[in-house]
Design brief:
The chain is α+β, with helices and mostly antiparallel strands. The protein has a single domain, classed as Cytidine Deaminase, domain 2 (3-Layer(aba) Sandwich), CATH 3.40.140. The chain has three helices and seven strands. A hairpin with a 4-residue loop joins strand 1 and strand 2. The radius of gyration is 13 Å and the shape is globular.
């Protein structure tokens, strides 16, 4: 686990934090997330809350990547008021990206509080 902020991130990781923040704000949802696959494509999602389906933003972004044919993930970002990523969120990233895939956890203002490995 490492402390980080947006200035410490490479430009591609800053981009997914910005996209996650935008998804959260645009959709008025609890969380926004973005993931980047092995080809550099990004997938952006918000929390899904339906009577029959509940997915975190990160789970939704990973599902979108899988549905679009992604073979692996390079990085993930979540913007939320929560203090950390859930075990289910990290498992979803780990399933597609592997245990070393970085997950950047950011506050609603976009400041990255911590980066953790998916594993």
């Amino acid at each position: 686990m490492t402390d980080s902020n947006a200035l410490d991130l490479d430009p591609e990781d800053r981009k997914i934090v910005t996209l996650a923040r935008s998804a959260r704000a645009r959709n008025g949802v609890a969380e926004g997330a973005a993931v980047r696959d092995e080809t550099g494509r990004t997938y952006v999602a918000g929390t899904v809350v339906l009577d029959s389906l509940k997915l975190s933003a990160l789970q939704t972004a990973v599902a979108m990547a899988v549905a679009s044919g992604a073979k692996s993930l390079e990085a993930a970002a979540v913007v939320t008021v929560a203090e950390g990523a859930s075990a289910a969120d990290l498992a979803a990233v780990r399933d597609l990206g592997g245990p070393a895939t970085p997950v950047h956890l950011a506050a609603p203002d976009g400041v990255v509080r911590v980066t953790v490995p998916a594993g």
